[in-house]
């Protein structure tokens, strides 16, 4: 004869086993060898501009440290209404800036953000940060988000080489 107590013990034991099975499945999914992309932001700096300006640019390096390609899909900054990846392009004797909506980096590839090349445009700035201050910048990819602090300075030569 099965008592209520023995039925309860079986139900609890069964529930524990079910919970343990789900835990094993969840952990195996989390630690299975998956390929994913990661990026690092390094040597970021923002060009210091006069206080009346409403836009500036950020420079530095974005590195894909993952084992799969990643596509940069956006950016943001704590001081700007809009932050986008741009590229300066030379056409004849004219230089234009073109918004880049997606830029794919191979594993190990470094995207140099520099004057006259790729850079982040920070637009819609209500109050231009002073030289020597810091600004947070985030870069988004299809699988990742990386943020770092950028120093505000006049040019790359004045950078204090502090890494993030």
Core attributes:
disordered C terminus, alpha+beta, 164 residues
Task: Give a written overview of the molecule.
With about 160 residues, this protein is an alpha+beta fold. Helices cover about 15% and strands about 45% of the residues. It is built from 1 helix and 10 strands; from the N terminus they run αββββββββββ. Strands 1, 2, 3, 4, 5, 6, 7, 8, 9 and 10 form a 10-stranded mixed sheet that branches. It is globular.
What Rg, in angstroms, do the CA atoms define? 24 Å
- State mean pLDDT (0 to 100 scale): 83
Strand content: 35-45%
Give start-end ranges of low-pLDDT stretches. Answer: 22-35, 160-164
Protein structure class: alpha+beta
Question: How many DSSP helices?
Answer: 1
Helical percent range?
Answer: 10-25%
Instruction: Let me know the largest β-sheet.
Output: 10 strands, mixed
Name the overall outline.
globular
DSSP summary, beta strand count = 10
Distance between the termini: 69 Å
The string of secondary-structure elements, in order, is HEEEEEEEEEE
What's the topology here?
Elements (H helix, E strand, L loop, with lengths): L3 H28 L7 E9 L7 E10 L5 E8 L4 E10 L2 E6 L3 E3 L4 E4 L4 E6 L10 E8 L3 E9 L11
Parallel strand pairs: 1-10
Antiparallel strand pairs: 1-2, 2-7, 2-8, 3-6, 3-9, 4-5, 4-8, 9-10
């Amino acid at each position: 004869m099965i008592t209520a107590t023995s039925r309860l013990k079986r139900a609890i034991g069964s529930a524990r086993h079910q919970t343990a099975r789900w835990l094993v499945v969840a952990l195996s999914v989390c630690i299975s060898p998956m390929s994913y992309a990661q990026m690092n932001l390094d040597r970021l700096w923002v060009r210091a501009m006069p206080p009346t300006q409403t836009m500036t640019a950020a420079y530095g390096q974005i590195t894909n440290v993952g084992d799969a390609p990643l596509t940069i899909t956006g950016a943001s900054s704590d001081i700007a209404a809009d932050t986008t990846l741009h590229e300066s392009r030379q056409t004849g004797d004219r230089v234009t800036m073109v918004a880049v909506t997606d830029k794919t980096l191979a594993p190990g590839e470094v995207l140099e953000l520099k004057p006259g090349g790729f850079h982040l445009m920070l637009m819609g700035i209500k109050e231009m940060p002073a030289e020597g201050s810091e600004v947070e910048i985030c870069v988004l990819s299809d699988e990742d988000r990386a943020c770092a602090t950028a120093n505000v300075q006049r040019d790359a030569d004045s950078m204090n080489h502090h890494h993030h």
